[in-house]
């Protein structure tokens, strides 16, 4: 799963950034948020190869700093993505429910301010984690421990704080925005317009990411830490919780797949820009075929030149 996320994340997000840089200028506030979301996903995908190598060899050889940095990248992307998606929901809420303020919220300065705030808040949220993640020597092997596999007494309350303020609170904001967007679209005269359908699909997709990708991870992380801190948990139960927690981590990373779908739903002529790049390649291929075809004929029959 990490390999798939790494390959798709690298190719997809690199292409998204190129399209926004080359084809979709000038940017609006939502465009700036989208580019920053793609950068966050790209940085996460770049950190995965060393983690994949660790899971293959079961031995961490890159030292404690790289262990902390790799784990840090996962959480930086996770909580950065949560905040970026929350901001997109709020921006769409303002554009749909308060259309008179839409022109103001689309200004680039709002996108810049929001992105700077997201990067800063995400760093503050997870910076204590840098002192909690460690490496462990066991059976002549070095393990790069995940956050939830470290000292449970240290990470227990911090894990709850992250879950409540960095996940559940943004989830409530997203749900609140979606409820008001749905109500506004339902009472709108032009509710069948394609733009309205796109806004509705965008809201639903963000909700799916929050529930399908982020919710299982936060539940299993709390259960994992709780199974380590309680002495009476049976070994087989602890192993089962650990296995489910291991699966929930790449599931959370799959938000990068859904984020790629967001770019086609968020407007900004993204689909047209992507098609123009593909059509340009097709036209180039056709032109090269026309240029080379006389040479091929002349070699076969000089009288036809």
- Name of the top-level CATH class: Mainly Alpha
State the total count of DSSP E strands: 2
Number of helices: 10
- Return the average pLDDT rounded to an integer: 84
What percentage of residues falls in helices of 4 or more residues? over 70%
CATH fold descriptor: Rhopdopsin 7-helix transmembrane proteins
Shape: globular
Strand order of the largest sheet: 1-2
SSE arrangement, N to C:
HHHHHEEHHHHH
Proper CATH architecture: Up-down Bundle
| Name given to the CATH homologous superfamily | Rhodopsin 7-helix transmembrane proteins
How would a textbook summarize the main sheet? 2 strands, antiparallel
Distance between the termini: 56 Å
Count of discrete structural domains:
1
Uncertain residue ranges: 288-300
Beta-strand percent range: under 5%
Subcellular location: Cell membrane
Domain G-protein coupled receptors family 1 profile: 12-263
Keywords: Cell membrane, G-protein coupled receptor, Membrane, Receptor, Transducer, Transmembrane, Transmembrane helix
Transmembrane segments: 6-22, 34-56, 76-98, 110-135, 155-179, 199-220
